[in-house]
Amino acid sequence: MSTVDEDGYSSRCDLCDTEVIQSMTELLLRGLATASVDSTTGDIFKSASSVAVSVNSELANYLLVRTEALLHESVGGHEDYSDQLMKASTRPTEFLSDLIDDFVASKRNMMSHVSGFLSSESRLNRIKDFMQKMEMENVWTQDVRKATAETILESIDMKCIFHCPERFVEQDKLVDHRSQCKFRVVNCKNDGCSASFSAIHIEEHDSICPFKTLPCHQLCEQHVMRCEMDRHCATVCPMKLINCPFYHVGCETAFPQGNLDNHCSKLLQTHMLYVLQATTRQNATVNDMNQRLQLLEKAQSLNEMSGALDVRSLTLIIKEQEAKIKKLERDIKTQEAKMKKLENEFRSRNA
């Protein structure tokens, strides 16, 4: 600033937390898109684009008026407003979100309420699409939204948690201060990272930056980027524990893979002994399997012979049953012949 304030200071730092400002800037654009869409739902004569400019002016004015009212009531000693201001001071994005929700609710037309449009997926898609359209057409430029967000933040940030309140009489002192201010914008120094943020977040970002180079978690001599650490430890790290190549023949030693050559050279004779023992066991197993195979072949032969005997026995039994059936058939026919003879004799007597 170039003008002198009442207290004699001519220049203010006014740097703000870039992350908070970015969040508030996005909230402003979404709020404008939502209010524009909801206020024109079902209206065949209006579209979100046709009302965006006027809604934009209303929204910006609404937010500033509500913020000033909160400050005025708080200064006036109203306890409820003082509590609200203290909460807004520590949670500015939440405060702004609540104000925008109130404004959006006042812009919803009857069709939005009646149709249940407010909870539909179509509504959310329209809001998202309209946000992208406004950004392309610069309906509410990011610089203007940023200025609005900074004005609101500076007004409610009573504890100066998110902006710098320092003031200076001399311009050169302001310049020196801004070069060291905790809210100055800095770039991440890790190679490959393009992130920028307020200096107050340097340690926070450094603790999660995927491009930060760190000592290997498995304590090898290499330094690896955080995003590559898991792959390094699981694959190429010389301190990765591996099993001995002769594990399957008896050596159950595990060691860092960088020690593989040393381990194998020191235990060469032991490994050869393991191989010899395994070969012996394998030969014994082969002999055992051959013996089992022979036994199985004999058992199969016996089963076949037994099966043949069973077939012969079954054939004899069937033949015996067939003979019995034939004998019964003959006996039945003999009895029938006797019955007919008796019937004929009975009829001849009665005649």
From TrEMBL:
**Please, which domain of life does this record's source organism belong to?**
Eukaryota
According to the entry, every stretch annotated as the TRAF-type domain falls at 205-256
Start-end of TRAF-type zinc fingers: 205-256
Q: What is this protein called?
A: TRAF-type domain-containing protein
- Naturally occurring in which organism (per UniProt): Digitaria exilis
Point out the coiled-coil segments of this chain. Answer: 311-345
The beginning of the lineage is: Eukaryota, Viridiplantae, Streptophyta, Embryophyta, Tracheophyta
Q: Which PROSITE patterns match?
A: ZF_TRAF
PANTHER family with a match to the protein in the record: F26K24.24 PROTEIN (PTHR10131:SF161), TNF RECEPTOR ASSOCIATED FACTOR (PTHR10131)
Q: Offer an example of a GO molecular function term for this protein.
A: zinc ion binding
What keywords is this UniProt entry annotated with? Coiled coil, Metal-binding, Zinc, Zinc-finger
